[in-house]
Amino acid sequence: MQKTIFPSMEPSKQFCPHSMCCARGQIGAGNIVIHDRKRERYRCTRCRKTFSARRGTMLEGLRKPTELIVIVVTLLSYGCPLQAIVHAFGLDERTVASWRDRAGIHCQQVHQDIVETAQLDLQHVQADEIRVKGCKMVAWMGLAIMVKTRLWVAGTVSRTRDRALADRLLQQVRRCAEPLKALLVLTDGWCAYPGSIKRAFREKVKAMPGRGRARLVVWSELHIGTVIKRTQKKRVVEVTRKMSHGSQEEAERLLQQSQGGNVLNTAFIERLNATMRQRLATLTRKCRQSARHLRPLETGMYLLGTTYNFCWPHHELGKPVHEGRACTPAMAAGLTDHIWSISELLHYKVAPPAWVEPKQRGRRKKQAREPLSVAEPARLRPLVRLRKGVLCSATG
């Protein structure tokens, strides 16, 4: 008798999450069947192990209703303070904070699985950092944006504004970029940016054949621009634009190609900074939601950035000069074909890497001895042996 499969359970779209299964991470391999429809559990026919339908999602192990969790995460992604959610739904403050961190970790995995592996033709990237005033601490949040699609491509958090912060930020941008493509990177006047950009966008080149180390050569089509603003009484009175690396003509061509303005600017990343400050409660100036640790800042950044990429239609991209329809940055970049809901984002599963058979460890197996032939009598057992310094019979 054939079993009836509920619409909510589709084995063809599942994969085995167990680390020691030979079919781990394979979708549509025919090895997943329904184990228990009431508890929503699947079973892998290869390793014979069962797993929950929530395995690998943000909702794994949570007992609260899914609708409530989705509503809370939606409010958090729109900048609702944690205390307001506690009073509105009667939840414990630690519960809401735990859901925020779990959602941020899950969004970080989604970002690494989709955005950082996309190999995009970035063309024009802008990078900047936000100064975060926390409780008894000052932190820095580095952000980077792809100007043509308004896609948030990288973000990192640190207690210090040093070269390590810029290196981590630009390495994330490098993982998103298609190699050896023409690229314009615009930053502010922080002196750490040009060196970090050159270290991130370089390839190994072997000049001489044979043994020896390969040289690291900066991309030939890399262009770095710097925009320095001088303020007086909280007003910009002077703007200095210069090229730190590359040519001015190619930089202007990339600006026109990416629709990033007519002159070197950092307007797009500053607009993203304003969105972050508006929708991340811990970044609001003069508020009571100041951050005490770096981890909530990082998880909140990934939650906001991923929902910004996949779930929020961008007003500028909806204009006729761009896409002409309701469009998210991920849709403009070709990463998806529809607007995601918060529920779809939280239910997204990141497939683990393919299973690799482990190498056999231990001593090598001894080779089987060949049978003695009649022509080799010398290989027979000796007649005498040495025992306590005296020769004795071997059979006695």
Would you write up a description of this structure?
Mean pLDDT is 86; it is low at 1-7. The protein contains ten helices and 13 strands. 32% of the residues are buried. With 396 residues, the protein is of the alpha+beta class. It starts with 31 loop residues before the first strand and ends with a strand. The protein has a six-stranded mixed beta sheet, with helices on both faces. A three-stranded antiparallel beta sheet has the order 1-2-3, with no helix packed on it. Strands 8-9 form a two-stranded antiparallel sheet.
Overall average pLDDT: 86
Helix content: 25-40%
Q: Strand order across the biggest sheet? A: 6-5-4-7-10-11
Profile the largest sheet.
6 strands, mixed
Order of helices and strands: EEEHHHEEEHEHEEEEHHHHHEE
Rg estimate, integer Å: 30 Å
Helix and strand composition category: alpha+beta
Apparent shape: globular
End-to-end distance, in Å? 75 Å
Sheet-strand content, in percent, reads 15-25%
Beta strands, count: 13
- The number of helical elements comes to 10
Briefly say what this structure is.
This protein is α+β, with helices and mostly antiparallel strands and about 400 residues long. It is about 30% helix and about 20% strand.
